[in-house]
Amino acid sequence: MQLGQVVGQGIATVKHPSLQGWRLLLVQPLTAERKEDGEPLLAIDNLGAGTGNLVILCNDGAGARELVGSRTSPVRWMVMGVCD
Predict the structure, then answer these.
(1) Which of 9, 15, 46, 65 could form a cystine bridge with 19, CB 3.0-4.6 A?
(2) Does the pLDDT at position 84 exceed 90?
(3) 57, 52, 54, 17: which is closest to 41 by C-alpha?
């Protein structure tokens, strides 16, 4: 798991069928000191996080594929929680 800050939304005209109905967020991973840690990434979200929110990310691809209900989904990152 990793801390991240939502910096925007991903918009796709064509999505993998397993991602239909899922929000795609552009999230900047952060260190424990809240400094940028690498490049922004796309994560699926069903919690309603918005731009500027601090979120907890999980990169368990198998768990994310189980969440979307497809063993062949290209999903890797998912939002596990929104921090207060």
Answers:
(1) 15
(2) no
(3) 57
Q: What is the pLDDT of residues 34-50, one digit of tens each?
A: 999 999 999 999 999 99
Which one-letter DSSP state was computed for residue 36?
Answer: B
Question: Is there a contact between 4 and 32 (Cβ–Cβ < 8 Å)?
Answer: no
Q: Can you give the pLDDT at residue 27?
A: 98
- d(C-alpha 49, C-alpha 53), whole Å: 6
For the chain, which domains are there?
2-74 (2.40.50.220)
Q: Hunting for tokens 């939304």 — which residue is that?
A: 9
44, 66 Cβ separation under 8 angstroms:
no
Listed in order, strand segments (DSSP E) in 1-84 are: 2-10, 23-30, 41-45, 54-58, 78-82
